[in-house]
Amino acid sequence: MALFIMLLQLAFEAYYFLLLARVLLSWLAPLAYRGTMRQISSVIYSLTEPVLAPIRRVLPVWGGLDFSPVIAMILLAALQRAVIRLLASVW
Question: How many CA atoms lie within 13 A of 30 on its CB side?
């Protein structure tokens, strides 16, 4: 069961880094749409948009800044802790 918990933690951390990559790509927008980077950014956007879109609908836009990735990272960290603690206490 410890292996399952470790793999679950790895999945949470991988998604965290996808969110971080999405933020970095938004800062480097001209580079994100060239060649191979276009395919990579397309995959990152398609994996993160289902989480960010609902948050974006609820959050107001402050000065043109999108804080949905920050909120998503906070919620992801809280969910990770809760799930891992629950699984650790059950097994």
Answer: 0
Amino acid at 8: L
pLDDT at 63: 84
C-alpha triplet 59, 64, 67: angle, nearest 5°: 40
Note the pLDDT tens digit of each residue in 8-42: 999 999 999 999 999 998 888 776 667 778 888 89
Could you state, in order of their start, the residue ranges of all structural domains in the chain? 2-90
Q: Using CA atoms, how far apart are residues 89 and 60, in angstroms rounded to an integer?
A: 38
On whether the CB atoms of residues 52 and 70 are closer than 8 A, the answer is no
| Bridge partners for 62 per DSSP | 65
| Structure tokens given for 43 | 């995959």
> Where are the strands (E) in 1-91, listed by range?
none
